[in-house]
Amino acid sequence: MLDLLVRSARVAGAADGGSGAETVDVHVRGETIVAVVPSSGEPPDAAEVVDARGCLLSPPFVEPHVHLDTVLTAGEPRWNDSGTLWEGIACWAERKPMLDHEDVVARAGEVLRWYVANGVLHVRSHVDVTDPGLVALGALVELRERVRDVLDLQLVAFPQEGICSFPRGAELLEEAARRGVDVVGAIPHYEDTREDGVRSLEIAVDVARRHDLLVDVHCDEIDDEQSRFVEVLATHAMRTGLRDRVTASHTTAMGSYNPAYSYKLRRTLSRSGVNVVCNPLVNLHLQGRFDGYPKRRGLTQVKELLDAGVNVAFGHDDVMDPWNPLGTADPVLVAHVGAHATQMMSPAEVAQCFQMVTDRAARALGITGSYGVRAGSPANFLLLAAQDAFDVVRRLVRPSVVVSRGRIVAERDPAAARLRWPGRDVEDVDFVRDRDAAGATWRAGPSVRSEGDRER
Ligand code: 17E
Ligand code: FE2
Questions:
Q1: Is the model's pTM score more than 0.90?
Q2: CATH of the domain at 298
Q3: DSSP codes, 275-294
Q4: Which ligand is nearest to the CA of 156?
């Protein structure tokens, strides 16, 4: 007897592109996938049965970069009128003294519920440690435990106002490492001098090595073509052997580097093994704010980095805070906007954008060992009423069913628009472009049946 049986799902990224008629069944016992088998044949009994009706089966979405301590504070105590990173940091510095434990737990907990509803089961959150009381850190360390039965939360000790340029910055970073963060951060482009920026990276890498932690640096998030700390970080990653345990986040100055230096830097990055995280929603909005026209896009070189063999992921960065007043914690929107913003628009590139909020983001977090839909893995997966990854990104398809640790933790009905064209019958419009007859089943979305339950 299984605890959960998923029938007739199509596998994302299968050889047929996830659009063929071959379907699989997923067998779940407890919190673990015990088998993934072709749908032909009589399935075992199960306490709960989901008929996927040909929906796409995918591992969960992964959020590689968000600031949970700042979510839902937009406008408190004032709005970021200029829209710059700098005014955002100033607004946050005014909000920070008002933080208390319950305030942070409530706001971050709310947004984590949004993430789960959107199919995200792995989150890396930065948390500002340039606070003598480390209030947000205490709250998020507690929340990490409270949510563990549904999602994995990684915490980054993020020195928002600098390591060398903030009073006792290095001590606070060390204290955060002792209190149990997973990752150490830095912000070299914000330090007062270039030398302080270089020194801050030495300090962060040293803390990470001594405490056996990962590294994720807000690196060169500025439109200054002379901000060149990524090469320093990548070289540390190479020489210390930390390699893919290191992530360079934002790296927006790469959008302003000249071609000769860009070429050199991409070579350094690909040799170093570091991951790069691009946050298209937020950096499209924050960067270029000091430009007239022509105005820079202010994003890192996503397409070129991928071509150079660098692992790149897409993050959301902010949800309703001083750096982004909008946001619903939605990785599908991030992939959709990311495709436009980085000109990743061929069919293969759009599918790659889906990878950047799933597999590639999992790689950046260093969780590939337990990530993926296969026998022996934790039973964490999604059903998407879509033809394939391209279709998810194009039509902004959100998961119909979210399974975490073998339990259904979120459901949603596939939305349909109803057209009442004069002189015609009323018809549903789902924006699907017909490619195969098999589409008819997945368009209806999955149906869920529990023992003693009626069909929904
Ligand atoms: N802090 C920072 O330095 N950069 C950002 N993009 C955010 C916070 C959101
Ligand atoms: Fe960030």
A1: yes
A2: 3.20.20.140
A3: EEEE-HHHHHHHTTTT--SS
A4: 2
C-beta separation of 161 from 100 below 8 A: no
In this predicted structure, what is the pLDDT of residue 16? 45
- Report the C-alpha gap between 252 and 123 in whole angstroms: 22
pLDDT of residue 12: 65
Decide if 221 is catalytic. yes
The pLDDT of residue 15: 46
Range of the domain at 259: 61-369
The residue among 242, 177, 248 whose CA lies nearest residue 207 is 177
Q: Mean pLDDT over residues 278-283, rounded?
A: 98
Ligand 1 proximal residues by C-beta, below 6 Å:
67, 85, 160, 187, 218, 221, 282, 317-318, 323
For range 57-81, the mean pLDDT: 98
Handedness of CA 132, 138, 140, 144 (dihedral sign): positive
If one counts the domains in the chain, the total is 2
Residue 31 and residue 160 share a domain: no
- State the alpha helices, DSSP H only, in 331-401: 331-341, 347-355, 359-365, 389-395
pLDDT band with cut points at 50, 70 and 90 for residue 452: low
- The verdict on 32 and 67 lying in the same domain is no
- Residue 454 pLDDT > 60, yes or no? no
Q: Which of 48, 63, 161, 221 is catalytic?
A: 221
Same domain, 129 and 227: yes
The domain boundary residue, chosen from 369, 384, 406: 369
